[in-house]
Amino acid sequence: MIGTPEQDAEGLLKFSEAVDQLCGIEITGRGVVGALYAAARARQGEPLAMRAARLLKGAVRGPGDVVLIATGLPTFAWFLTEQDGPVGAATLARALVMAYGVKPIIVTNPGDEAICRTAVTAAGLYCLPLERAMQLPTTAAVVPLPVDPDEAAKAADELCDRVKPRAFVAIERPGANEKGHYHSASGRRFTDYCAKVEALLPHLRAAGAPIIGIGDGGNELGCSVIRDTVVAAVPGAAKCRCGCDGSVVPAAEVDALVIAAISNWGAYGIEACLAALEGRAEILHSPETDTRVHSLTAAAMANNDGPGLLDPGTDAVPARVHASFIDVLGWMVGAAGLDPGRLYRHPRYPWLYEAGGEPRG
Fold it and tell me: With 70 as the cut, is the pLDDT of residue 218 above it?
């Protein structure tokens, strides 16, 4: 932004407040987002999307650093993921590549790999096997973790030893409750279909890497931050329907929680805040890209979580509405007064530069 440091700070605060307000509009009619957002904001003390964006910016040291993005919430009765999650994971991966030249690795459930690969390529990134992805710019990888806890722990050890992740983001990603089971927002158990991504978290904590959760209903990884409010405000959250006598709230602790009306919108809000922090509007993906990601991810068999059809959209909201949301968010980014000079003071395309700032080749 353009102005004195004090003016810039004030402008960023106003901008990030507006981003949170937009992302929290109660569009799905569930009636719980306001209470969940208020609790998360009170607990964390600052606008949620900007808090997450600052953590990501502070964690990434240069091109080639790895950010893990976990997603994939099984839907009944197919036990394949919905579009809420993979779409936001893919566009956030794109934003992190545009901003910092990172290597995004999407971590998901066995069976959801094709959906996530499709989302990533629709967002504009190459998606290749892990070893090849680590060698190339603008490239992501999709890695399934096992559903068996012991196998997941071994796979997490191997992955983290290989890539040394700098940050972790979970988007619309269920987590194990206090009894060790995974649930839908309505309290149905799908433990046997969920990769045990929590096995990654000890590695991240040991490395001091931030752990960020994005959710919209209380059963997503990260909602332990507001457990009491979820149990009080979300119908059926206090006791699941599966017989484990636990809540639907994941138990794993995180460093930041972003609550939005739709989890993908929380990812979009982080993108917008990254664009404002870096002074580069193109970090936020376009409405056209959003439509493409939704459409192709639906064709890859990701549900809209509506009538059980593979129509493009998220949480029964059609893709055209999500594209309009990005259009509004983009106008807000443009109105924030981004500093065009930053395009020349910092590399526009960081993946084309070595760690020391020298152009490749």
Answer: yes
Q: For the whole prediction, is pTM greater than 0.70?
A: yes
| DSSP state for residue 75 in the 8-state scheme | E
* Burial tier of 189 (Cβ tally within 10 Å: 0-12, 13-18, 19+): buried
Q: Which two tokens stand for residue 306?
A: 């509506």
Tokens (6 digits) for 92:
């956030």
pLDDT of residue 340: 42
> How many CB atoms sit inside 10 A of residue 326's CB?
22
State both tokens at 250.
Answer: 């994941």
Q: Is 210 in contact with 8 (CB distance < 8 Å)?
A: no
CB-count exposure of residue 245 (10 Å: 0-12, 13-18, 19+): exposed
Q: Which residue has the tokens 């306001």?
A: 34
The torsion of the CA quartet 324, 328, 331, 337, rounded to 10 degrees, works out to -150
To the question of domain 13-339 being in CATH 3.20.20.70, the answer is: no
> What is the DSSP track for 80-95?
EEBSTTHHHHHHHHHH
Question: What pLDDT score was predicted for residue 305?
Answer: 84
Structure token digits, residue 111: 């069976």
Q: Hey, where are the domains in the chain?
A: 13-339
